[in-house]
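Sample intake sheet
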Amino acid sequence: MNEAIFFFNNVLISGVVLGSIYAVGAIGVTLIFGILRFAHFAHGDMMTMGGFIALLLAAACTAAGIVAPVPTGFLVLPIAMVIAAVIALGIDKGFYAPLRKRGAKPVTLLIASIGVTLIIQGLIRLFFGSGSHSFFVTETKLLFKIPIPIEGVTRTINFTQPQLLMVVSTVIAVLALHFFLTRSRLGKAMRAMADNPDLAQISGINTKLVVRVTWIIAGALACMAGTMLALDVSLKPDLAFNIVLPIFAAAIVGGLGQAYGAIAGGFLIGFAETLAIFNWSILLRPLNSVLPGWMAIPNNLAVVPTEYKLTVAFVILVIVLLWRPTGIFKGAST
């Protein structure tokens, strides 16, 4: 039973947390692709940028003596999301909108997004350096331990306060996005433009407004995902390097242009990574008492080492591209 609880803590809880981060990040990628038809490679760095915006606001709150029952990073998250959304609009107006007016092809916009990535990375390193930062320098990260009332069970179910708030925030964000896309007139216009941009335009839909709202949502959700990841681990300028492949894999697996597919893909990639790096010998070790010596369970039965968990997202991405390029929810062909 102790082994099962260890599995629950390290696979199920970690998978839900990681899947939540990937899902929120992948929604922005898939919305931009669905509306503007190009892969925005700077999205991972927008997540990093959002995390640093939240870090600055949290430091300002700490300096002002503001104390809250939740981590300051979550307290300032709504403000950080608004700032990130405004910056996302500025990035589109300064870099992508002029290219679209000139009739630039999607591959040109993709290359431009790589340039935006380098600019964001450079600015982050210029102002914050290349070291790691933490939201919990002056705060304590609360750890919740739930005992299991079963005889002989010594392990507890463990999760931190930021992890709990991440899952709650993800549920709220997903529900809000669902009602926006299905109930509001603007949300329906976004779905129509994602399905057929030309038909949406001749039908009288304000495509410019749809593009602006897309960047607002993408920027805000990128900030949310980056801040959540930084609250769970640490914040550093190259944070996007470890997350850009999983969120693109999640968007493609779910179906590019499909917001619900991005959510499903995010949790699929998150659980796949935690399952791949889990040491399965811990669950199988009790079998050593009944197995002959030459069949003893090895000390490590992880599918991949922790430092190579990015390969899991890459393998899943390649398989999906070969087997079902449109993804689970049949999005745009990749």
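Comment: The chain has 13 helices and two strands. The chain has a mean pLDDT of 88.
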